[in-house]
TrEMBL record:
PROSITE patterns: MFS (PS50850), PTR2_2 (PS01023). The keyword Glycosyltransferase does not apply. It comes from Macrococcus brunensis. This is Peptide MFS transporter. It is found in: Cell membrane; Membrane. The chain crosses the membrane at residues 65-87, 158-178, 184-205, 232-252, 258-279, 291-308, 340-361, 373-395, 470-488. It comes from the Bacteria. Belongs to the major facilitator superfamily. Proton-dependent oligopeptide transporter (POT/PTR) (TC 2.A.17) family. Keywords: Cell membrane, Membrane, Transmembrane, Transmembrane helix, Transport. PANTHER family: PROTON-DEPENDENT OLIGOPEPTIDE FAMILY TRANSPORT PROTEIN (PTHR23517:SF15), RESISTANCE PROTEIN MDTM, PUTATIVE-RELATED-RELATED (PTHR23517). One of its GO terms (biological process) is tripeptide transmembrane transport. The lineage of its organism: Bacteria, Bacillati, Bacillota, Bacilli, Bacillales. The keyword rRNA-binding does not apply. Residues 26-493 form the Major facilitator superfamily (MFS) profile domain. It is a multi-pass membrane protein.
Length: 500
């Protein structure tokens, strides 16, 4: 039975979590542990892939490990599109969220088992599919707790997103320490336990805390559509299985060839998405002008996330292999820093700096930079975050880098993220054609998917170029795009047709 938004909101206890709906508390808890498991696993994933088998790793080449890490991130964002569609048309947000949590937990459990590559591949598949179901839908349920005119909604999302950064901040410390003191699988098990806690709490409290919100699909498939999509999905799955079997037997399907497929998808999906919207009869001339303005912003977003996401693979490997982690040699302190701890730097600076950046935009008032300028600033700081890594290379002469250079690199990138990321979400909503209001945000999420898909190829340049040349190339490319976007500022602003 379909309920109105008002009926769904009224079914939720509207107090019980710091003046917010009771359901926000359980969703905060679930998201915290889900992000704990994701970022904790990701903090040691690339090390696990390239570490020697005798040390408990998979013994892959570093380049392959970095490429797979990028593919993993790209596919999580791509499957979010499918997860959103399934929730809207088939499952409802709540069921999609729960199924996703079960799959994610199973994926982390698989990773904690010492069965090598088969366990690793099973884990990747389960977490990618589970994240696709959970990631877009938990935010949708949060929004469903409030009436549309409820002044608490924005604050509620701020509280909710704090759970993301809190989970991301704490997990590398815990998982990285367990991996260092015990082994990789104990670290992965901690991520699995975190996800299990989230799932248990959700199952126990969701009914009384979330009421009717997200129980039913918002636009369920008709009987005719069910038959149509069942045929399409069945044929597609069978063809995919046949393709995998054939290419495996022919020796064509390797990590390398699969990375090319993922990269192609990362480039083609946003193009298809954009053309579908632009050529739609439901989009008027003003909306088409705004879509044209969105193109350079989208490209800037891809470039930014390409650098930001390399913090989890390229910089992660750099921290482990080329950074002085022995504090005894730096400060006379008998402690060896786990390389995974560097993955906590990004969320730490986000939590620390976000209030100041937000207050600065508010204080500037009418002097607030335009949207294209904020995007350009994001590119500038991202580019500088890589270029700054060249400085110690000029005087290091093969010695290990001081870890403060990595901290500085992460800090600069976070400043860029706080300029670009919130602005990107906001402008995506503002520039969205009315007929594609929800899908425009999906297009924005594809900036990250496309970036990581492209990274699957970019990271292969590290070995032939060397880190110094690589940092210079990628950082320099970001600075070039920064200049181009600044020069396009007036054109983009004009094409936005009154949107700022």
């Amino acid at each position: 039975m379909k309920h109105t938004r008002e009926e769904m909101v009224n079914s939720v206890p509207q107090t019980g979590f710091f003046g917010h709906p009771k359901g926000l508390g359980i969703l905060f808890f679930v998201e915290f542990w889900e992000r704990f498991s994701y970022y904790g696993m990701r903090a040691i994933l690339v090390y696990y892939m390239y570490d020697k088998v005798i040390n408990g790793g998979l013994g892959m080449e570093q380049t392959t490990a970095a490429s797979i890490a990028s593919m993993y991130g790209a596919l999580i964002f791509m499957t979010g599109i499918v997860g959103g569609w399934l929730a809207d048309r088939v499952l409802g947000s709540r069921r999609a969220l729960m199924y996703g949590a079960v799959l994610i937990m199973a994926g982390h459990v698989a990773m904690s088992l010492p069965f090598g590559v088969p366990s690793f591949l099973a884990s990747m598949f389960l977490i990618i599919v589970g994240s696709g179901l959970m990631k877009p839908n938990i935010s949708n349920v949060v929004g469903g707790l409030y009436h549309k005119n409820d002044d608490r909604m924005d604050a509620g999302f701020v509280i909710f997103y704090m759970s993301v950064n809190m989970g991301a901040l704490l997990s590398p410390f815990i998982v990285g320490t367990l991996q260092k003191n015990y082994n990789y699988h104990i670290g992965f098990l901690a991520a699995a336990i975190g996800m299990a806690l989230a799932l248990i709490a959700y199952i126990i409290f969701q009914k009384r805390s979330l009421g009717l919100v997200g129980l039913a699909p918002t636009h369920p498939l008709s009987t005719q559509e069910k038959v149509k999509y069942t045929k399409i999905i069945t044929i597609s799955v069978l063809l995919l299985i046949a393709l995998i079997v054939i290419t495996l037997k022919m020796g064509i399907l390797t990590f390398g060839t699969f990375s090319i497929v993922v990269t192609a998808l990362g480039v083609l999906l946003p193009i298809i998405y954009f053309l579908t919207m632009y050529n739609s009869h439901d989009v008027n001339s003003t909306e088409k002008s705004r879509l044209l303005a969105y193109i350079p912003l989208f490209i800037a977003g891809v470039m930014f996330w390409s650098i930001q996401e390399q913090g989890a693979n390229v910089l992660s490997i750099f921290a482990n292999e080329h950074t002085q982690l022995d504090l005894n040699k730096l400060y006379g302190i008998n402690f060896l820093v786990p390389a995974a701890w560097f993955q906590s730097i990004n969320p730490f600076f986000i939590v620390l700096l976000a209030p100041f950046i937000s207050a600065m935009w508010t204080k500037l008032g009418k002097h607030n930079p335009s949207t294209p300028v904020k995007f350009a600033l994001g590119l500038f700081f991202a580019g500088i975050s890589f270029l700054v890594m060249i400085i110690p290379a000029l005087s290091n002469h093969g010695e290990l880098y001081n870890p403060w250079w990595l901290v500085l690199s992460f800090l600069l990138c976070v400043i860029g993220e706080l300029c670009l990321s919130p602005t990107g979400s906001s402008v995506s909503v503002k520039l969205a054609p009315e007929a594609f209001s929800s899908q425009m945000l999906s297009l924005w999420f594809l900036t990250n998917a496309s970036a990581q898909a492209i990274n699957a190829q970019l990271v292969k340049l590290v070995e032939p170029m060397g880190y110094t040349n690589y940092f210079g190339f990628i950082g320099g490319l970001a600075i070039v795009l920064f200049v181009i976007l600044l020069l396009m500022n007036k054109w983009v602003s004009r094409k936005m047709e009154g949107i700022h």
